[in-house]
């Protein structure tokens, strides 16, 4: 019997060109509890009209899809997951007309809406169960799983071990046992009965006809039971999901089914369906095991918990996507870990027993991480960059806290904190009437932590989160790209590549609380420049050797790898024999490179003189990418720093005092006593015209000479790559090639504007020519100051920010395509259903 027959809607009027089947892959999801978000009528309980009033805030944040947990009619013994009517709204939340208005308002702002649908069970107050227990031979008698004893299905695990002792409960009215996988007041439906299947399909169509964009299917692994199994992931379950997907795809395009299957990845991938067909069951599935392992990895300061679970994750069909989250809304679930790992997590994150719930930890993100801003940012960066679509929990964007003194899951379901005013701006009611008390402690209390204060502070977590969401949308590789982990020399650093066509994004995360260096094998991207996505800073070019980076404690980098290498400078080509060597202040020649021996080929003058490709600390990002001729001639250019804007330290920028200054520079991220892996043997006196440290002969004025022998780095120093020999000149890794950022005499750097000189580089060109001409005689050393120290060199001409066009993130890629007006609103397809709903709600 069909209790609620929805208005039929085939969506036949939706043009194919307006459809966006991959919208959920690019989307950022936001879970919002109706009860907890905003109270519109002052009764102390959040409602649908309240959420509608706050949609502008969610649009500003950058949310693409809203996920509403159950708001159906319910006795609320399990937060609404104990449904008593699948097709009606809980009266305190509003009515169907309010829901339709909410969906339409979200669609007008370009946001989609999915809702929770509890497929596995109902409340024991549902009319179906009441009829089943009172009339075993009636039409609802076998809507649930009944048995004369509790001996069946003994291999099935008990999920809520802290409250339930069996999956069977005796009913005193029917005098039989009924089956339940969760609470005893939530009996499981009997999917062996075709009428039950039809009821569920009808309820799904009912909400789709009201304009929603999909469902989170709750507890789908447990739909069927079979003796001798654990009653999870059975073939009959997958067969029913295939039927659901087929009917929804045929009538409701661009809708999504998100499976909540708390299983190991090798089991969850089955819920995507047929791999060659691109998936014929659920479009999405939560990746439960990766969540607790992020927390373990940070506490252990090791990437391996995350690396190993991602390595064990099988490939998924082309039309499917993972759902990534940091907490499973109500708790940090610990089902998909070993007993030893669970004990470790309890010891680290739930020292107070009140923080535990079921097999998990009922705490919000900020308290879990001790309100450490660096850790919160690291976790959010992982959430937004790991393979899958991120799912945010309401309030986490402002760092809301929890209340472990409240019962069950209510600890993390407190009212949203909007303002420092009465009831946190959530409701105008008397504070004692609130459905749950607001957070009032001195750290997370609403007087301190609220949306109003966060909006007023540009450095707040809220503004930072919005910026990160914006960056994710500008780079399609995050949502649509492949995932490849990059080997890292440091076990505390996780690095991976997201690739989608020409969009290459490299993410590097430090799980340690201390600064950490790492070397990455990026030879595949030789000659490309990493551009940091948050600030648009252009990092040194990738070469043949491992790329060195230094990350702050709990720090991270997001890079776009740009393929636009600089073109060679124009001018007269010169031969190796005509290249002149400019003596340095210390008497040793600076590096020179003849055309053909480095990345830069030829200049207008007589020599191509290399120079550092970074500016002194404090210079602008553009200046860091511009080479100056005076620094090259004096050998006083600073070494590369590990992080953007950090000064070089130690002897990385300069060789020992007793050694000749070759003008060489430290590799990025190196701060210590050596400038490169194959350090020059400074004890050997250099011969006239020789350049120490290179792996091949160096072109000098008329004569090619052999460089000084290379020596090993100091004992205990981390190994960095040596230099490859260059034919007839300095090597490509030696800083004189286009990949190394060398500058030609004309002033055009490899890090400069592609296609030749920019208009702002004219001064640099003239200065460079003058410097080359003046290098026929030694340059006197600068006079020491009163302390006997050499003064810092004056800024070189042409090294300002005008010498390099700024690199703006997202310039090459537009934002993710938005949904069309028709697809967003489903304007006319569900008209009859909406009209009926509004009439019913207001009647």
Which features would summarize this protein structure in a list?
23% helix, five-stranded antiparallel β-sheet, eight-stranded parallel beta barrel, alpha/beta, disordered N terminus, 843 residues, 26 strands, 22 helices
Explain this structure to me?
- By secondary structure, the chain is of the alpha/beta class.
- Strands 1-2-5-9-10-11-12-15 form an eight-stranded parallel β-barrel.
- Helix 10 crosses helix 12 (339-349).
- The two termini are 26 Å apart.
- Residues 1-13 and 565-830 have low confidence and may be disordered.
Task: Compose a concise summary of this entry.
The protein is α/β, with parallel strands linked by helices.
Average pLDDT rating? 75
Structural class by helix and strand composition:
alpha/beta
Q: What level of helicity do the residues show?
A: 10-25%
Distance between the termini: 26 Å
Shape: globular
The count of DSSP E runs of length 2 or more, i.e. the number of strands, is 26
Q: How do the helices and strands line up, and which of them pair or pack?
A:
Elements: H1 23-26, E1 29-31, H2 34-37, H3 48-53, H4 55-61, E2 65-68, E3 72-73, E4 85-89, H5 96-108, E5 112-118, H6 127-134, E6 146-147, E7 168-171, E8 176-179, H7 194-209, E9 214-218, H8 235-251, E10 256-259, H9 265-268, E11 284-286, H10 290-300, H11 304-311, E12 321-324, E13 332-333, H12 339-349, E14 360-361, H13 365-368, H14 373-385, E15 389-393, H15 451-456, H16 461-474, H17 477-480, E16 482-486, E17 493-500, E18 503-510, E19 516-520, E20 529-532, E21 547-551, E22 556-562, E23 592-593, E24 608-609, H18 621-624, H19 629-634, E25 698-699, E26 704-705, H20 762-774, H21 821-825, H22 831-842
Parallel strand pairs: 1-2, 1-15, 2-5, 5-9, 9-10, 10-11, 11-12, 12-15
Antiparallel strand pairs: 3-4, 6-8, 7-8, 13-14, 16-17, 17-18, 18-22, 19-21, 20-22, 23-24, 25-26
